[in-house]
Amino acid sequence: MVPFAVAAAFHVLVPDAGERLDWQRIGAQARTFLQAEISPPAGDPVTEVDVGPVGGSPTRVSLRTVPLEDAPEIREQADRGVRAIGGAGFDALVARAKRVWQVGATVDGDARAPLVLAAAIASVMLGPIVPPDEVTIFGVRGARVRLEARGWPDQSAA
Question: Any bridge partners for residue 52, and if so which?
């Protein structure tokens, strides 16, 4: 699978080298901590996932994964993000990363959906997120702060 460009996706760097995600756990985390619903994907490898607020309309989001060693530009961006925030322990997380899960940032629908999916994956896989639109790196808490600033969860959909 060809990786997304650095500026085209949210990148979740995970220590697990496996090519599969536990969609049941991801869905449970999304519902509990992000007030989101994530549809179980059909098929393998997973390339598209529906993400939306609980009780709201879903947005289709693209998903890719590659070994981190096959995406040196993403590793470089993660290292830049670590330097930008002064490390804060994220240097250790990046050093342990073996795989990157990429969530396409461009969608036809709710522009917050890619960050919601990245946050749900990060919460289960214990990996930091490298965003497409700023030089930084953050975890689930940072994703939640960004989502709340963008009005997620949408209280009108609940």
Answer: 37
